[in-house]
Amino acid sequence: MNLLKIYENILATNGKRIAWNELLSPDVKIKVITLVSNKSPKLLRQLIEPISNIFDLHESSIRPHIRKFLKTLAREDSKENEFFYLSDYFKIYDALDINTHGLFILKKKSVRGESFKTIEFFDSIDMETKVEMVSFFDGLIPRAKLPCDYNKEFVEKLNRLEKKYHKYPYLSDISRSIELKNVLKLIRNVVKTYDIDVALIQNTSIYDIMFRMEFSYYTYRNTRAKRGVDATINFYESVIAEFNENPFAFLSFVKFLSEKPDGDKITIYTICLDPKLDKILFDGDEQYYRRTVNRMEELKRTFFEELQVNKNLKELYNRIRNENKITNEHLMPRLKIFRQISVYVVETINHFNKALEWLQNAKMIAVDTEFSTDSICGKLHLCQVAVMNGVILFDAVKIPTHNLCWKKLMNLLIVNPLCPVLFFDFKNDFRILGTILNDEEKRNLDTPNNRVIDIQFLYSNSIKEPTFRHYLEGECAEPIDTKSLFQITRNVLNIDIDKQLQCAAWKMRPLRNELLEYAAIDAYILILIYNKIKSVIQDDELFSKLEGVIDVASYYKLPSEQVEGSVDETKKIKGGSVKKVTLTDIINFIKNDPDVSTYTNSPKQFTFYVDSMILNMQPVLLNLGFNIFTNVQQKCKIERNQDVIILSVGKTVANWRSQNRYNKIIDIKYDHTLQEKVLSIFKELKVALDESLIVPKCSKCYSDSIVVVNRKFVLLLSYEDFKEDPEYTKQVTRIGKIDEVTILNDLMEDIGDCKINPDEGIYYAKEYKINYKLKHVMFYPDEHWRALPDKRQLFLRAFHNINDFMLCRNCNSWSSHHTL
What's the pTM value of the predicted model, to 2 decimals? Predict the structure, then answer.
């Protein structure tokens, strides 16, 4: 390195540099790159910068030669690390064709445990290349298959690609390395991040639609006996709304229904409601069409007979045919709530401008939103704005949010409000309303003048005041320490609001009056709650402190998918964001040390006692194949006949040494990262990394008879118990900003191959099923239920953790799971 610095200093003078460059041919430069790439990864990173400066490797004429060299490097076995590093260093991402590079990226992210949120170099390539790579990823997703066949078909596709790209050793096992759920996650995040047209990822869109429709179907089957016509109308609205945006997904839905007892009836009723799907089915699956032609005619007759006697079905049938009709040219009341409050629906730009005029003079405003939580194209469908004497429903389907009038509305509601603006769980609404503003507008949010008030936050503060708490204790129908709008409304106003329509098909147009009424009440009720709390407190100065004006700008500073209070929020430690370390990170860190590959000792030769100050190392060492000893009878003393290595830290090391003359003691450095601590043990004991020993194990009984449980499901499972325990609720100051609906929505977006039936309260996974209402689990192939372990702090552990959880079959206990 010193010699390289000398060369750099000599060549810093112009005369020397010119003479030197005349000696450098492309062949010489490529020879230099070849020699450097043969060094260890650690040395390569040290050498590449000075070598590039000396041999002028950043010069544009050499780039085609580097590109050719990278292509050769990609075909060499065990050279993938050098390929990725040099590609990133020289910012050359087209050495391989786009499909091959795409597979390299997927394999790298899978084996290294990297985030699937985005592709790091996407900012350096043009939009055309971005689209081409995302389209290739989308092509990996199976199409028009039953949900249960998706994984099988995905693996078959990757097997075919392994054969096609056999000349690249790195791609030899992609069918075992790459998971469908991770490819889907990558596609969704890249499309949202770079605003890529959703129409270009048809397979992914169909996959997501099928997932939602399967859920809707089973919900319909389980609730129609109890809710009757309402369940039927809700289901068909969901079906029509989904396939109106992506009619070709209807073919997959028909295949799914073909195995269900009422499948043909649902298919034909859907076609009768939306005739354009008839041609889609005929063109896409003519065989099905011909096979069921007689049954279809019979069911069509049944549908139109039922249409004459079922007024709700008739209303839906007529409403679908008036999809694009504007109800009123002028902004007129559509209906009333609470008998006297008029509800207006804004469907045109003229309506919108008129409504903005009305809001200019408002003394108080309340806001709510209805939006889809689709993993790709989730967007605003309705924005409800209530004032003292009416409610205005802004239709974001009829008037898309890219229109300038929406920014004017955001100015009144968020950017520069002229009066108090009420929300409920503001962060949830801002997550969708904030997308209307561009980055510059978000950065310029005028926080000091902000008058946004979160009713959920106001209620949480008010229940600490004796006057208001005394009022609730006399009136309360629900627990006082509640966080849901339904329960707060019941407690404060003694009014029951219907929340069954919360997950209705809000993208359907026109919306039926029941949905308009539901949406209007959700907004207007905030004004009633605010006024009631204020009248009970009867102290303006105290009440102004309880309101707690919201720092809107703070919501923008957080990443778009990690808004404060969301289940996946970034944890703040000492003022900075800290990414928690996974077992995969530790394994890769150890692999990158060139010395470890030369060691011969096996982890199973060693048994550790881990001191209490560094207990976070215990599950890591256990999963890496080491043995763990815990039976210590006296403080800082282990029996002489125990062949145990003691791991300790700081001043406690001296105590262990004074009482354990016959045991090896390793002093772990307190200021090292977890990766560095583990690596120091490998180097101290000359241990080789044996991947055959790396198996997730229970941290209690050390058994590997475990099942992995989605962390977001653990949050759902433990939320109710946690919420009802005030002692533990106090431990998380922002826990009130999370509700069961938010947790369930987050879970539905990342549920993978599992299924959930909210009505039965059962979560279905490959190796088990859990009744989260009764807190029981059934492990397959057993046919009996057993009680889940009672863990009072389970919610807190899941809330502060980024990993999934393990449930041990052997000792029936929970422990954190480090993704391998």
Answer: 0.63
